[in-house]
Amino acid sequence: MTTLSLISRNCGSGGGNSDWAIECGLQTGVHKDFFVGGLLLGSVRRRNGVWLKNLGGSRIRSRNRFHVIAKIQKGKKHDYPWPDDIDPNLSSGHLSYLSYFKPLTEKPKPVTLGFEKPLVDFEKKIIEVRRMADETGLDFSDQISSLESKYQQALKDLYTHLTPIQRLTIARHPNRPTVLDHILNITDKDKWVELHGDRAGYNDPAIVTGIGSIDGKSFMFIGHQKGRNTKENIERNFAMPTPHGYRKALRMMKYADHHGFPIITFIDTPGAFADLKSEELGQGEAIAQNLRTMFGLRVPIISVVTGEGGSGGALAIGCANKLFMLENSAFYVASPEACAAILWKSAQAAPKAAEKLRITAQEHYRLKIADGVIPEPLGGAHADPVWTSQQIKFAITQAMEELGKMDTEELIRHRMLKYRSIGGFQEGTPVEPERKRNMKLSDLNAAKAGDLEAELEDLKKKILDAAGPSDPITSEKLEKLKEDVDQEISNAFISMGLQEKLESLQLELSKASDSSDNQTLNLLKEKVDRIMLEFYHNLTRPGAYLGLKQKLEMLNMAHRLIELKEKGEKLKTEINQKVPAEVIAKMEVLKEAQKKLSEGDPFDEELAEEVERAKNELIEVLKSANLEIIYVKNRNIPPPPPDLAENIAKVNEEIVKEIERAINVTGLSEKLVELRAEMTKGSSVETVEKLKAEIQEQIVAVMDITTLKEEFENLNVVDLE
After folding, report:
1. At what angle do helices 499-512 and 117-136 cross, to 10 degrees?
2. CA atoms within 13 A on the CB side of 345
3. Which end of the chain is more exposed for a tag (fewer CB within 10 A), N or C?
4. Residue 550 to residue 430: CA distance in whole angstroms
């Protein structure tokens, strides 16, 4: 194809009163034999502007100059990437040219996951020893062999004890083989052709479909396609299909059902694309149509989860007779990050959510959702993609041997029974009509604020009333609190995503335990400090980990109280040693007098004077012990005698009546209502205090203070200081 661009321009008119200019660009495809020069020559010679005749509405005069500029641009020779030097006598292999999926020109860069960092040290040591062997010419084969065996053992230990969040990280590895990689590895050579379009105006690149053959038998392949680099991921929309992609998959399923091709689907998507345009085009309806249609297809369907399978976006092509999952793949109703953000208000709790969701292939196989787990090489599928693809091919071949023996009705019933058997139920057990659930972390794993306050007061009382700092009841209470705090801290480390870093650090510490290298120990100490700094930074965020914070405050308060009590006991012992025997005897007299007074005995003025003298002597003794006396406080205020208590109650009742009378006289009811309203809506302290002062002034102004004062003075009150 040759591109021809025509640009025409006309400037000026005969009288010079009007200027006009027209520029148009035209790109058209013409045959190579087309004589462009003749067209240009004829156009320039026609100075009367016949080419612009329809635009002006009137004939343009000959003196108007007309210029035509043509530029021939070289375009694509063909729509598909055919090679320039294709063999004209080619008899096979045509289909390989029809796919845009070609090997990458550059090898993907190696990516080290967070939990794999301990293995990097082994790799560096192996590379360093090999470099030394090359430079010096010495034989280091024994050392290299030893390091390689240690590396393989560490790799095996690491990949046989993976956590769910670590498996999900492997499933999302940037270098993990894509669906088209697996398809090209398992299909016969040059026996795969990709099919495009939903026949409704669009071809969604996030889902690939096509026909290929395995050992001479044709299959319909459908799968989510991720990119192998950033450019491809953007083009493929990170394997998140729109409704067009699901409708393309549905069209191919119906095509396979019509022609009797077994269907193989590959699942590797974080979920359906949830943008506004997809919702407008009926994302939910497209997924629902696929679910309904797949249960009625009359051909065998096999699904393989190669990476992550997210929610309905994965199920839309996953309702199969047989479901297989790669060893490090994941299948979930919501991603752990989204689940953690919903339940625990923080995506950092994703490791805990991954455990609760049971997203791994092993859990799905145990729950009889998956029909088999396909093994992966150590290090993940990206470590050996071809071997992984051959394991997938073997699983598909075995499943087809079983499904190929079933007729149409048996296939449909087998598919229906597979999903009907998932889950469990109980019969004869009464069910609560309404059951409230609250999955917030603060409600499940932490006590309520009121309960914590009650526990705090109870702990204070136990510490202060204990016979000594090592009281058994207090110690038991503190041990229980420490266990709760340790558990809360462990949960916090998991929710913050620091558990993997701790495990990695523990592994490094175990290796460096026998080493006396100060530099290595200093590096490990810096790592510990960084982890703890990140922990405290996350812990101090407003509204985060409230239960843990409250329990830490309780524990700190308990330690402070115990420390103060120990200091008090020590100080008390020192003071008792310095107090003379005469002062101690007088203190015993004071206690006896206080006891008699509480029992209703009359007040003795001589005894009061003696109390005052003893108090002054005690103050002098305390000063001699280099103690500063700030104030003197009664340890226990004895209850008043029964007659005196009755008189005090009567006076209090009269005071209350007098206040009520003052409020009615001054009309302060509205002011009190205003004060309550201000306090309810959380007004500033200044506003509330100002209202209180105004109310108090008006009440005092109209109260009969003299009468109340006389009644108060008539009370027989003994004030012991």
Report:
1. 40
2. 12
3. C
4. 38
CA distance 198 to 531: 51
CA distance 385 to 178: 9
pLDDT in tens, 686-718: 777 888 888 877 777 777 777 767 766 666 444
**pTM, entire model:** 0.53
The answer, yes or no, to whether residue 597 has pLDDT greater than 80, is: no
CA dihedral 513, 519, 523, 529 (to 10 degrees): 90
| Residue that wins the pLDDT comparison between 324 and 103 | 324
- 120: tokens are 């990097």
Alpha-carbon torsion (223, 229, 232, 235), positive or negative: positive
DSSP structure string for 617-660: HHHHHHHHTT--------S-PPPPPHHHHHHHHHHHHHHHHHHH
Q: 23 falls in which pLDDT band (50, 70, 90)?
A: very low
- Is the Cβ–Cβ distance between 97 and 83 less than 8 Å? yes
Name the nearest CA neighbour of 253 among 215, 303, 213, 214: 303
Residue 456, number of CB atoms within 10 A of its CB: 16
Helix or strand or coil: residue 542? coil
- The residue with tokens 């839309």 is 316
Residues 287, 313 contacting (CB under 8 angstroms): yes
Contact 5, 73 (CB under 8 A): yes
Rounded to an integer, what distance in angstroms lies between the CA atom of residue 443 and that of residue 547? 9
Which tokens is 567 given?
């200091």
Which residues lie closer than 8 Å to 247 by C-beta, 6 or more apart?
198, 200, 286, 289
Tell me, what's the pLDDT at 68? 58
pLDDT of residue 59: 44
pLDDT range class, residue 600, cuts 50, 70, 90? low
**Pairing verdict, β 322-326 and 372-374:** parallel
Exposed (0-12), middle (13-18) or buried (19+): which is 374, by Cβ within 10 Å? buried
- β-sheet with 67-74: strand ranges across: 26-30, 2-9, 67-74
Give helix then strand counts, H and E, for the chain: 28, 11
Pair of tokens at residue 82: 């055919």
Q: What percent of the chain has pLDDT over 90?
A: 31
What six digits make up the tokens of 678?
């201000």
Tokens standing for 118?
Answer: 């301990």
Q: 436: number of CA atoms within 13 Å, CB side?
A: 4
Q: What is the pLDDT of residue 73?
A: 53
**What is the DSSP secondary-structure string of 24-68?**
--EEEEE-TTS-HHHHHHHHHH-TT-GGGHHHHSSPPPTTS--EE
Mean pLDDT check: name the lowest of 62-66, 384-388, 600-604.
62-66
Half-sphere exposure of 482 (CA within 13 A, CB side): 8
User: Which contiguous run of DSSP H or E holds residue 208?
Assistant: strand 207-214
For the segment 605-626, what is each residue's pLDDT rounded down to a tens digit? 666 677 677 777 777 766 666 6
